Amino acid sequence: MKDKLAGYSIFSLSLLFLGAWATFTIWGLAEWNASAPFVSNQITTILIAAPVILGMVIVLLIAAWIGWTMARTPPPAPIDLEDFESVEETKEKKK
User: Fold this and answer.
1) How many CA atoms lie within 13 A of 53 on its CB side?
2) pTM of the complete model
3) What is the pLDDT of residues 26-36, one digit of tens each?
4) Taking a C-beta distance cutoff of 8 angstroms, is the pair 47, 25 a contact?
């Protein structure tokens, strides 16, 4: 029950935040050259730049994590091909 409440809370808050962000960003862009805008140009620039910066940080952190994992994981053991039968040997056994 707590998981559902937490899930719905996160869902609702994220939609509320997304709506507020979109509203103020679009409002700021619409009034960009107005003499007395409700949302200043600096705030509008921050509202546009912050998600872009956050997205880049997330993508680059994921790339760094993948690189670190690849660098720290030992290579797999080599496959000994003598343990496997060839296609011809398999056909001969079926005959």
Assistant:
1) 6
2) 0.59
3) 988 888 888 88
4) yes
